[in-house]
């Protein structure tokens, strides 16, 4: 379960991952990129306890405050008109060392909470899509099935269910035939998508490939949103191999996220500039199929922002990039009446658009000024 022990994200490495790490250590050695990719993602490092400027304890601020009198249920987050995030559980098969879930409440939803969430969904016809996450929804298969079944019965406005998971790369055998036949059945009633996160090609082991194929055979679409991590995948050759593999597996590339400024993750974060350099090489070099180009994005405290020319307005003396967005507080409050702008992490410009402040990583004391207003 996500959560802290003595201020440190409790280490948890699944049996499957422990065996894989050992196998890669024996066959490829500790200096190999594959070994480092696994260890850096999952194995606790003392560097996590060093003091740095990364202090975030959440991905973003979007919780809908529970209020029975207003029909606002527990366990949901909302930033956008069409989508709702449902935090079904905080349990994961393994703890990724760069993940903010360490700092989230560890409680798990009950069926009665799911009933209230489905009621909320059914009442808002603007809502078309739910992202079920946490935590890992496949860790609570019965609750996940209950959610999907109830949505199909009572909230026909929901057209898409997305399931965020790392189970296929962390403990693949947890996904069994019962789940595949459930998904096959319900993917006739609504679109079911699995959002996976594969950060290095070593994670695509035969057992994982079999599970991914079975998911696809169940009518589920799979896309991958990956995280750029130092000494995991922050080199162009690894990224090219990774996206080539995803292409041949029929997995769509979604975001390549810069690693968020979470407390204890300084050693895993590259600079934003390095990510921009890599994404340019990856997507404008003719080296990978145009059908598998990821979108480079920052997960800021006010939501996801894709970087375009002029998106980075400046870098302040504290190492924060000021990121221009097209989000407005007034829009947010239509979809989530409890939304408040986190004033220490964002502000509004004169046209009412939100400017997000985002702590750069790694060499952020000397960010390439050429990010501002494009690549001069
Ligand atoms: S990235 Fe996903 S699987 Fe990893 S700890 Fe975070 S929520 Fe769990």
UniProtKB/TrEMBL annotation:
Q: Which organism is it from?
A: Shewanella eurypsychrophilus
CC cofactor? [4Fe-4S] cluster; pyridoxal 5'-phosphate
Enumerate the spans annotated as Radical SAM core domain. Answer: 78-291
Q: What is this protein called?
A: Radical SAM protein
Q: Which family does it belong to?
A: Belongs to the radical SAM superfamily. KamA family.
**What keywords would UniProt list here?**
4Fe-4S, Iron, Iron-sulfur, Metal-binding, Pyridoxal phosphate, S-adenosyl-L-methionine
Question: So which domain of life are we looking at?
Answer: Bacteria
List, alphabetically, the Pfam families matched: Radical_SAM (PF04055)
């Amino acid at each position: 379960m996500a959560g802290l022990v003595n201020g440190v994200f409790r280490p948890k490495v699944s049996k499957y991952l422990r065996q894989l790490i050992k196998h890669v250590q024996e066959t490829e050695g500790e200096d190999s990129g594959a070994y480092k990719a696994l260890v850096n993602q999952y194995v606790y490092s003392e560097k996590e306890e060093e003091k740095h400027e990364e202090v975030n304890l959440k991905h973003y601020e979007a919780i809908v405050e529970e209020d029975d009198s207003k029909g606002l249920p527990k366990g949901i987050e909302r930033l956008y008109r069409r989508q709702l995030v449902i935090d079904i559980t905080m349990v994961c098969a393994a703890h990724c060392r760069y993940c903010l879930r360490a700092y989230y409440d560890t409680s798990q939803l009950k069926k009665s909470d799911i009933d209230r969430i489905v009621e909320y969904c059914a009442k808002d016809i603007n809502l078309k899509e739910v992202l079920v996450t946490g935590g890992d929804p496949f860790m609570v298969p019965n609750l996940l099935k209950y959610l999907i079944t109830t949505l199909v019965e009572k909230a026909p406005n929901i057209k898409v269910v997305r399931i965020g998971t790392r189970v296929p790369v962390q403990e693949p055998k947890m996904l069994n035939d019962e789940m595949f036949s459930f998904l096959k059945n319900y993917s006739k009633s609504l679109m079911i998508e699995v959002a996976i996160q594969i950060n290095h090609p070593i994670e695509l082991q035969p057992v994982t490939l079999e599970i991914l194929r079975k998911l696809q055979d169940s009518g589920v679409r799979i896309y991958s949103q990956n995280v750029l991590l130092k000494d995991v995948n922050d080199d162009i050759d690894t990224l090219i191999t990774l996206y080539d593999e995803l292409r041949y597996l029929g997995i769509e590339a979604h975001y390549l996220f810069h690693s968020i400024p979470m407390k204890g993750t300084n050693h895993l974060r590259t600079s934003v500039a390095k990510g921009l350099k890599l994404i340019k090489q990856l997507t404008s070099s003719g080296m990978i199929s145009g059908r598998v180009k990821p979108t480079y994005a920052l997960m800021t405290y006010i939501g996801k922002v894709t970087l375009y020319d002029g998106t980075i307005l400046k870098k302040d003396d504290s190492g924060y990039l000021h990121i221009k967005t097209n989000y407005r507080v007034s829009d947010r409050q239509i979809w989530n009446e409890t939304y408040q702008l986190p004033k220490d992490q964002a502000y509004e410009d004169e046209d009412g658009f939100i400017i997000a402040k985002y702590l750069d990583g790694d060499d952020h004391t000397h960010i390439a000024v050429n990010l501002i207003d494009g690549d001069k």
